[in-house]
Amino acid sequence: MDNVNSIDLVSVPSDYGHGANDGAYYPIGLLTIASHLRRTSPGRKINIVDMHHTPDYVPRADVVGISASSTLCYQNVLAVAEQAKSAGAIVVLGGPHATHLSNQILTNQKEIIDFIIRQDGEEPLASLLKAIDDGDSFCSIPNLSWRNRQGEIIHNPIHCETWAYDNYLPFDFSALSAGIKPYWDVTKERVQKDMAAGFVVFTHFGCGYRERMKNRSLRKDMLSMSCSYCSLGGDVVARKAESIVVEVLDLIQSHRVPAGGKVLLKCYGDNVGYHRNMISAIANAIAREQRWSEYDIEWTFYMQSSLLTEKMADMLLSIGTKRLFIGFDSVDDCVQRLNGLGTNLSSHQHAVNVCRDSGLKIHGGFVLGCAGETVFSVEKSIGFAEKAAAAGVLERINAAIMVIMPGAPAYNLLCRKEPWVRELDLLDTEEIRWYWLRHFCPDLKATPTQSRRFLQDAADRLDDLCAGAHASMGFVSNRMLRGSSRRAA
Ligand code: B12
């Protein structure tokens, strides 16, 4: 095999519905990989292609690595893989969907997928490229799933070192083939017109709530210990406050943001409510850093309603937080308990009141069609959203219809009822949802098809309440359809 000279790392958009932030933030997982590869093997040409901004991408590199970041983009992943394979490339997949379904993918997509890297990708991909160059065995490459000469699928063990984001800083932004400007243009349009710059900065990883629930036992009124739809794994790790502050100031300086400019920081770490000590340490680190006050820096964090106290709100405000993404999901206490959400109506209401009183804006997420959903529970959620929207605290509503994601408790629950689902690598959202509604929402409407129709109308009603940029997660909303027909016209 010839040496690997060029590698494209590709991010593809969702193939069904869309998120409100699609195209607004660069793919961090590909930036950590590209930065590492560029540092450790400078002879190779490494590019990140984000098809949100380069929709006409034609693969030509020796190795094409595609991020199967979610079940909802996997169809697009396969389309790029097919093109890459017919152009003669070695095709490698990574990301959460590929991690959870590595065996199914290597079994079902023999013709187009050569390798899968499970979990973190930086060192394993570097080792894979070296092994290809040197003609070495793949047996000792950590995290790698591959086929041997006999066609058997081998899953090498996951390496035991703890993955650390800080090892890959500073990011080499020149790897983004379209540059950072298209992301900022979308962020300006969707989030804040007068921003000077926007960055993704993880302050922590993993979900403290999921971790806390891991070793508890299920109560009778619960189907799942933690959020039934969530496939997030990994250890809970908070970064050092000083490193976070240094990273932000480096980002600002290296992108030449003018003094006084508004800088939006989006932390995609889950559930900041478990990180009070880290937030207070960030506040102290900011106080020691004169340069921070030269910019107008705003944070957005994810928060579980049950963890938002007045004290937590004050701490978040003290570091410049302006927005919280709160997953309300359902407002019905039975649905919340059954799905292991760890919240209830009163925690939701309390969170709305805290935000209203402290001036924090909410991006509220709702997931319709969780286990146990009824017409009554859906109406309750919509009524709650209407009230919160009228109170002026909901800057954005993310409407979603439950999607069954490999790695999530809902996937395992469904596979117990419908074992054939476990063989699939490509999960048709609507087909799988039909079975989910049949088994887990039996009291919604008379048939799964009627239930699905009802959820579509309900999700459209929620979406219509949203004044800001809107999401259409796991379904195609009326607004999304109207938008695409306007674009086509
Ligand atoms: C940021 C984020 C987004 C951003 C993406 C921004 C961007 N341009 O990347 C936005 C908001 C747009 C988004 C959208 C969606 N997301 Co999202 N998102 C995340 C989130 C919070 C963080 C991802 C991240 O940056 N992690 C940090 C980096 C360092 O890790 P990483 O991305 O996993 O990458 C590492 C490895 O996975 C691997 N790797 C990844 N890609 C590749 C590729 C190759 C070739 C290799 C070798 C390795 C490799 O190496 C990387 C470095 O170690 C995760 C949850 C989480 N904390 O992981 C959910 C998550 C990935 N998203 C999820 C979902 C469901 C979605 C949506 C479908 C939501 C929706 N309905 O619209 C869409 C789908 C969009 C899409 N095209 O896939 C699910 C996926 C579940 C699943 N099993 O499929 C997750 C896990 C959340 C969850 N709680 O369940 N998302």
Describe the structure.
By secondary structure, the protein is an alpha/beta fold. It folds into two domains: 6-155, Cobalamin-binding domain (Rossmann fold), CATH 3.40.50; 191-488, Alpha-Beta Horseshoe (pyruvate-formate lyase- activating enzyme), CATH 3.80.30.20. The chain contains 17 helices and 17 strands. It has helices spanning 28-40, 74-86, 96-100, 102-108, 122-134, 181-190, 208-213, 241-254, 276-287, 310-318, 333-338, 345-358, 375-390, 409-417, 429-440, 448-465, 478-488; strands spanning 6-11, 17-18, 45-50, 63-67, 90-94, 115-117, 144-147, 153-155, 197-200, 204-205, 237-238, 262-266, 296-303, 321-329, 361-368, 394-401, 472-473. The chain has a seven-stranded mixed beta sheet with strand order 3-1-4-5-6-7-8, sandwiched between helices. A six-stranded parallel beta sheet has the order 9-12-13-14-15-16, sandwiched between helices. Strands 2-17 form a two-stranded antiparallel sheet. Helix 8 (241-254) crosses helix 9, helix 9 runs parallel beside helix 10 (310-318) and helix 15 packs across helix 16 (448-465). It is globular. The model is unreliable at 485-489 (pLDDT under 50). The structure holds cobalamin (B12). Cobalamin (B12) binds next to strand 1, strand 2, helix 1, strand 4 and strand 5.
